[in-house]
Structures are given as structure tokens and as C-alpha cells.
Design brief:
The protein is of the alpha+beta class. Among the domains are: about 5-70, no CATH class; about 80-140 and about 190-230 and about 385-500 and about 655-705, Alkaline Phosphatase, subunit A; about 500-650, no CATH class. The protein is about 30% helix and about 25% strand. The chain has an eight-stranded mixed β-sheet. Strands 10-9-18-17 form a four-stranded mixed β-sheet. A four-stranded antiparallel β-sheet has the order 11-12-13-14, with no helix packed on it. α5 (about 105-110) crosses α14 (about 465-485), α12 runs antiparallel to α13 and α13 (about 435-445) runs antiparallel to α14. The chain is globular and about 75 Å long. About 50% of the residues are buried.
Length: about 700
């Protein structure tokens, strides 16, 4: 039974917060004071809910008891624990196991099963984890990339969520005024297996599984992950405050660079927050700073309170309170890092995360779950892509700063995961850690001395960063094994593997040079992104994102010119043949291993929303940074010199994930789509008709295969 979870947690939270003294936060001021008051009202409401739940507990207990008795007739296990380690690669796991570095993985594999796990087409996290959640191929869940194009404007939009504001008239007698309301829609299709088993009385704890914003409503608790925005509505935009004019005028735009003027080692600036609907500018908070060169630290003053920063040390989470109108405030949390004070000052501020204690957008289910975790374990990152890869790419933070940040986030998620393991003893616990994915993206160059990203950068200090990460994941697996009982089923999975990203293929450059993509001035390429200057009246194909090429269809795109049917198929086959024939003169390799026609590799009602060709790159290649943002350049093959030096957006056959289980599995070729129907079956719930995955056969413990 799991109804005790909201009762016990909420009752404990209300009592402890209202009557127990707590430790000091990073600072206490008007912003923090308002957060406490706001949390009080949230907790008051949840406390009332807890009290009401206690009153009706005898009736609910009787109903749940009868329901659980019926369910237990079909259940094969008491609990399933699914630990997701994003991007863990089977070849690297095997190599490190052979070297004796991963004893817990080795023990788990010897006791049960270790196998590569077939990933999705395309092989990227939002697609693969969506298939993990639903048991269907992308043509049925409609997620093909992080973002797709709006067919009306050709501009990028998130694939998984839509956030907007609608204005509705409100009448009171003769008076009428407009009321703005924020709308958050979940765009992934198909049903998650935790929703399916929840309808059959199985309680689930689902933590940080990608593509879970806004959170689904089901019988259980969840925290959102990938595609959850920051408070400013982006997918994570850092801020860098500096008096270095060169950095501020470098033309780099992935973050916000704020120039500051030092006078007597003091400066004034602002923290830019969200923009309210209809407002001319963003909300902001005043910030003051005072450098002490002799002591080598910076004193920041925010909300009339002070914060002391030393170089190389992250601040605690700082609560920001933005005034959004009469008696209305919006709360966010940030961390600061003083990179250095000389020869110029450089101060990093993380993206402004939605405050889990007072969320302005839903980041958990139920809504109070993030409040509970924040009160139990402190503030934590709610951003979908929390590890700041862009700040490292642009040199605003260094490798050690990135590792420190990544492992801080990892520890928070461990706390939440083990909290769920302790409390959910008879149901499903799923948690995905993306530390493994982010560290491989940013440190893969260390595994190859000839990587194009290495010149001019350190190649020794963090040479073991990836190995150390795998060992840390092994420690996590060991801790989880200690928390599982003999009758629990434990699965450890990754959504895909990893490989080098050395060269980028600019598909838009190739399409332009080969007469499929046209500009209004075809002799001069525009410098702007997102198809600036494209002549859609002549363009037959274009590329956006990491996964493929779109045909400019006249019945789908607003300015499409290619007729569906035979003409579309003819162009698809032309492109397939020509793209697979591209040769890299430097390596002698064909960068594109397979160009796959979507209608032949996907099935389902949403296949037409996919790129018309899914590009399977050879190892070492990927869509170039420019191609991903809809920009053509003079070069088709571009060396990748960024710290983001590893990737998996290649042919899915080259980057399978991992599958470990503490039971032996009869089938030798599991797929990520098999896990949803298999877990349903373990809880006595039949596979759904639309699910593409199989029910894997888990053999009883100590049985021979």
C-alpha cells in the first residue's frame, strides 16, 4: 500500500517546518522571507489535504486492501527498480569491467543479465526515453528530436511541450477585463507504462525520466526532467558578468554576457528574470558587488543581503524573488561561481531554475512533491538540462567547475532516488541520472589524442574523467543492490551508447550546393540562423536539428512545393543515394552510413511529423552545429573544436545502450521498447495493443537458462 506516502510526508513536513528550527540558508532577506510565507500557504493547503486524508483513511484503507488483494493474484514481483544511466556505453562498460574497475556491474551481470540494448531510430535521448516510457516506436509517440520545426514558420519549437499564454475575458457585472492564463501542454503521445500500471493499482515513483514536462498525472509521484525550462523560458541560459570587453563583444550568444564597470572595485548590475505577458521588458533584481583583491573574494549584495564568494567555489542555491505586480512575486533559484578576480573579473550565474519550493510552472506530480523534497533535502535544480554544457563550451566555466556542478546535481538526485526507494517498497521506482551523458559529451576528446577539439586545450588533467564517472555509476549500482530485496527486480539501463564527435556534416550546406535549398541571394549566404534568407518557393529540402532532413511538402509546410506521394518518394531516394555517397577526403570515410526513409523505418500515426530522412552517421561524425540551427556555410564537413566532443546522434546500430538485470533474461537481443511491456507484465498487467516491444522472459532466480 502506498497511500501512506502523502499522509506521512505531508504531515511530517507541516509539523517540522512550523515547529522545528532550521539551519541558516545562504542568506535571509525579503526574497527569502516571501518564499517562506509562500511556502507556508502551500504547506497549509497540503496540511489540510493531509488532515482530510487521515479522516477518510479507514474507508480508503478498506478499498485499497480489497483492490491490492485482487492485483496480487496476478503480480509476479513486489517491486521493480529501474535505474537509468543516460548514455552508458556497452563497450566501455565491458572494457572497464575487464579491467576490474566495475565490480558491481560485473556482479550484477554474472548474477543475471548483461546485454547491449537496441536503441531507437534516431538514437537520441528524448526519442529513446520516450520509447522506454511507452513501449512504442517514435512514429507512435511523436518525439523525433529535442525540437522540430513549426511547419507554418519553419522556426524551431520544442517537440515535447508547448508553453504559452492565453487571454480570456472576465466579466463582473458591467465590468470586463482580460485575464492571462499560462497554458502548458504535454505533446508526447502514447501512454507511459507507469500510467498503465497505475490504473491497475500499482504505485510508481518516477524521477527525472526525460520527456516528462509538464508532469503526467498518474497514481504515484514524479519529478520532471528534459525540456523543463528555466524561469526565463529557455532550455538553460547562463549569465556571465565581467569587465572584460573582449568577452562581451565576442559575438557568442548562447548565454547572456553582462558588462560591468568597476569603480573603486565596486559595481552595480541587474539579474534579468522572466518577462510577463504583455510587458515591454523583463523583470529584474538589483545586484551590487564589491571586489576585495587582497583577500581574493567578491561580496554580492542581493535583496539587501550579502553573499561572500571565493574563486572556484559555487555558492549555495540562492532564492530570487521577482516582483510581478501587486502582491505577486515569482521565485527562482540560482548558483553563482566567481571564476576569477584578475586580470579581469568574471562571475558566472547559473540559469535561473524554477524554485521547487514555490514552482511557477509544474515540475512535479503532485504539485507539492517538489516542495516536500526541497524541505527534506534542500533546494535542487529543476532545469531539464541542468549541467551547463554551454558555459563550458564557451569557456565561461572550466572542466573542473563543470565536474563539480555535475556531481552536485548528481548527489541531489541520489537523495531523491533513495528517498523513493525507502518509501516505495511495493511498486515501481524509476530514476534516470544524466550525469553519465553530460560528462561523456564534454570529456570524450580525452579518449583520443588526435581529436580536433584538443589543440590549445588541456589533455591530461581530466584524462580519467570518463573512467571515474563509470566507477561512480558502479558505486551507485552497488548502493542500489544493497537496497533491493531478493524478490525485487532490478534493471539498469541506458538509452544509447557513445562515440567520438570529431567532424560535423552541414546538411544545409550540402543541400544548397546540390540544388535542393535556395536563398533569395544564392551567391551570398546569410550569417543569421534558422533559415534566414531561404527562398522557400524554390527549396525542396532542408535540415533542422540533429536527426534528419525534411522535404518541403506542399500539403504539410506552409510554403511547400513538393507534392506528396511519388514526387516526395523520388526526392527521398535521390537524397538517400547522394548523401550515402558523400566521401570525406581527409579520412576516406563515408560520413553518412545510412539515410533512412522515415516511412520505411517508423510506423504509426505520427510518422509524417518525422524528418523525411533519418540520417545515420558513421562514428566520428554528426550533424554540424550550424546545420542543427538551420544555417548553411561554405563548408560541408566542419571540424568539431568544441569541448562537446562526444555524441551518439549517429547510426543507431553503432550506439546501443546497456541492459543489466538481476534476473536472467531468455531473449538475447532486448530493445528499449521491450522494457515497458515487460515491467507491465511483472505487475500482472497485459501488454497494450499498440505497444511495439515484446514481453521479455525473466527466469526465476537460480534457474538455468
Amino acid at each position: 500500500m502506498h497511500s501512506f506516502i502523502p499522509v506521512s510526508i505531508l504531515f511530517w513536513i507541516v509539523v517540522s517546518i512550523l515547529f522545528t528550527p532550521t539551519g541558516a540558508s545562504a542568506y535571509i532577506g525579503p526574497g527569502a522571507g516571501f518564499a517562506v510565507i509562500s511556502s507556508f500557504f502551500i504547506l497549509f493547503a497540503t496540511g489540510f489535504l493531509a488532515f482530510f486524508t487521515i479522516l477518510i483513511w479507514p474507508f480508503r484503507a478498506a478499498i485499497i486492501y480489497l483492490r491490492q488483494r485482487q492485483i496480487s493474484k496476478h503480480k509476479k514481483v513486489r517491486r521493480v527498480v529501474a535505474l537509468g544511466l543516460d548514455g552508458l556505453d556497452p563497450q566501455l562498460v565491458q572494457t572497464y569491467m575487464d579491467q576490474g574497475l566495475l565490480p558491481n556491474f560485473k556482479k550484477l551481470g554474472q548474477k543475471g543479465t548483461f546485454s547491449p540494448l537496441t536503441t531507437t531510430k534516431p538514437s537520441i535521448s528524448p526519442v529513446a526515453w520516450s520509447s522506454f516510457a511507452t513501449g512504442v516506436n517514435p512514429g507512435k509517440h511523436r518525439i523525433f528530436d529535442f525540437y522540430t520545426r513549426d511547419p507554418n514558420t519553419y522556426l524551431p519549437v520544442l517537440s515535447s511541450a508547448e508553453i504559452g499564454t492565453i487571454s480570456r475575458p472576465v466579466k463582473l457585472g458591467p465590468l470586463t477585463w482580460q485575464r492571462n492564463k499560462t497554458i502548458v501542454r504535454f505533446l508526447r503521445k502514447a501512454t507511459s507504462f507507469w500510467e498503465t500500471i497505475g490504473k491497475n493499482g500499482i504505485f510508481s515513483s518516477v524521477l527525472r525520466v526525460p520527456i516528462s514536462f509538464p508532469p503526467e498525472k498518474f497514481y504515484g509521484t514524479s519529478l520532471s526532467a528534459m525540456c523543463a525550462p528555466d524561469l526565463r523560458g529557455s532550455q538553460g541560459a547562463f549569465t556571465c558578468y565581467t569587465n572584460s570587453k573582449d568577452l562581451c563583444t565576442s559575438g557568442i550568444s548562447e548565454g547572456t554576457y553582462v558588462p560591468v564597470e568597476l569603480s573603486d572595485n565596486r559595481f552595480r548590475s541587474q539579474i534579468i528574470g522572466p518577462r510577463m505577458p504583455g510587458a515591454a521588458q523583463e523583470l529584474s533584481i538589483d545586484m551590487q558587488g564589491k571586489l576585495d583583491p587582497e583577500q581574493n573574494h567578491l561580496i554580492l549584495k542581493i535583496h539587501d543581503e550579502s553573499l561572500k564568494l571565493a574563486p572556484g567555489q559555487y555558492s549555495p542555491w540562492i532564492r530570487l524573488s521577482f516582483k510581478a505586480g501587486h502582491r505577486k512575486k515569482i521565485s527562482g533559484i540560482v548558483r553563482f561561481l566567481l571564476n576569477r578576480t584578475e586580470p579581469e573579473m568574471r562571475l558566472y550565474m547559473s540559469p535561473i531554475n524554477i524554485d521547487p519550493e514555490k514552482p511557477s510552472l509544474p515540475v512535479s506530480h503532485p504539485f507539492y512533491y517538489s516542495v516536500v523534497l526541497s524541505k527534506l533535502y534542500g533546494p535542487f535544480s529543476t532545469l531539464g538540462l541542468s549541467e551547463d554544457t554551454w558555459a563550458l563550451n564557451e569557456g565561461v566555466i572550466d572542466e573542473q567547475d563543470f565536474l563539480n556542478q555535475s556531481y552536485d546535481i548528481y548527489e541531489d538526485r541520489k537523495n531523491h532516488f533513495f528517498d523513493a526507494l525507502r518509501k516505495n517498497r511495493d511498486g515501481l521506482v524509476v530514476s534516470v541520472f544524466d550525469t553519465s551523458d553530460r560528462i561523456q559529451h564534454m570529456f570524450f576528446r580525452y579518449l583520443d589524442a588526435k581529436h580536433p577539439a584538443n589543440p590549445g586545450k588541456d589533455c591530461e588533467r581530466h584524462k580519467l574523467a570518463i573512467q571515474n564517472m563509470y566507477q561512480r555509476m558502479d558505486q551507485l549500482v552497488g548502493e542500489v543492490m544493497e537496497q533491493t530485496r531478493p524478490d525485487d527486480v532490478l534493471m539498469v539501463v541506458s538509452d544509447h551508447g557513445f562515440t567520438h564527435f570529431k567532424w560535423g556534416i552541414n546538411l544545409n550546406s550540402w543541400l544548397w550546393k546540390n540544388g535542393y535549398l535556395f536563398f533569395h541571394d544564392n551567391n551570398k549566404l546569410p550569417e543569421a540562423n534558422w533559415f534566414s534568407g531561404v527562398d522557400w518557393s524554390r527549396t525542396k529540402a532542408y535540415a533542422l536539428g540533429l536527426t534528419g532532413v525534411f522535404i518541403n511538402l506542399e500539403t504539410r509546410e506552409s510554403r511547400g512545393i513538393v507534392k506528396p506521394g511519388d514526387e516526395r518518394l523520388k526526392i527521398q531516394l535521390e537524397l538517400k543515394q547522394q548523401l550515402e555517397a558523400i566521401t570525406d577526403a581527409q579520412t576516406g570515410l563515408n560520413p553518412i552510413r545510412r539515410a533512412m526513409l522515415s516511412q520505411m523505418n517508423l510506423k504509426g500515426p505520427y510518422t509524417d511529423d518525422a524528418p523525411d530522412l533519418l540520417i545515420g552517421y558513421e562514428k566520428g561524425y554528426r550533424a554540424s552545429w550550424n546545420s542543427a540551427i538551420g544555417r548553411a556555410t561554405d563548408r560541408i564537413i566542419e571540424p568539431n573544436t568544441r569541448r562537446w566532443s562526444g555524441d551518439h546522434s549517429v547510426d543507431p546500430e553503432l550506439v546501443p545502450g546497456i541492459f543489466f538485470c538481476n534476473r536472467k533474461v531468455k531473449e538475447k537481443d532486448p530493445s528499449i521498447m521491450d522494457l515497458a511491456p515487460t515491467i507491465q507484465d511483472l505487475f500482472g498487467v497485459q501488454k497494450l495493443k499498440n505497444q511495439d516491444g515484446r514481453v521479455l522472459t525473466l527466469l526465476p532466480e537460480n534457474s538455468a537458462e
